[in-house]
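job 3f2a | input accepted
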Amino acid sequence: MTDHWQILDRVAAGREVHRRHHKKTDGRDLFLYGYARHDAQRLPGEDLQSVQGSELRRHPLLGEWSIYAAGRQNRTFKPSAAANPLAPSTPGAPLTEIPFEAFELAVFSNRFPSLFAGAAEPAPSELEMHAATGACEVIVYAPEPDGSLATLSQARRRLLVEAWIDRYQAMFAAGAAFVLPFENRGDEVGVTLHHPHGQIYGFPIVPRPQQSAADAFEQGYDLAADVKTWGNDYRIAEAGGLASYAPRFARFPYEVWISALEPVSGPWAFNETQSDGFAHLLGDTVRRYDAYFGRETPCMLSLHAAPYGRDGRFQFTAQFYPLLRAPDRVKYLASVEQATGVFTVDVMPRQAADALRGAL
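job 3f2a | predicted structure (360 res):
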């Protein structure tokens, strides 16, 4: 096993960011990011074997792609604290996904990937089908088993932003057409591991929503200018040249977007002030959700940056979709939403902005 250390070109909060690339015994990649160089020796033992096998199929009526990955059916489901695969490993115990006793932030290739390098082409079919090439990675925000974007320190959220940027660049260099960092939070979303973490998918295709967004920007839509015309009624908070707001066209009750006041195509285009502001607003948004709903709010977070080669007029957004419409009421995507894509929104966006603005 050969390890490689590198200092990233960018800095976070004025500090160098170090990356260690460790090749696990099962062949999967592990990246350790930190403000200090990670020199610890890995613990002895064999890493878990990955499960692979999936394909892409295109729906002939909708024109949308789906991933078929039967190997994910038996993925880890709500393990005990002692069997937490995202925790640091402990001497004498079975290895976790991170075979070290300590780390700051870790990224590793998913053991149960939907997309992976070297995926085989499916057998010929009347359907349009392709190999599910790409990447699926897990990004572990911290070694502690509890916490969230709301409770992480600003320095740790800045480190997270730099790790995201590094993975964007690596996945694009490996041939990804679109990269999606995301987080699922809460049982209502279907979370199976509660350790604070997210995932990153590198797609070989541009999914239809992101293709539509790229087309809209290239045809002249200016989100930043649009947001400015809404005034402060929809604005929730500002930091470092970015704003969080309830978009007038939100599809979820209490949906929140974060974007730059002067457009950028992706986090890789942030200057340090914008990166600081983005990191702050990530935590601020989750804190507002938890304060308003009076509980840890189940929500989905996704980062929408330009597909590969389409920076141009594209404007980056981070989008939060909470799964609550009231503290004790889940927002279900039922028959109408699933069948038509037409959402019924129970809370007016301006009302949501007012509520979240006053939550802290």
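job 3f2a | The mean pLDDT is 94.
job 3f2a | closed
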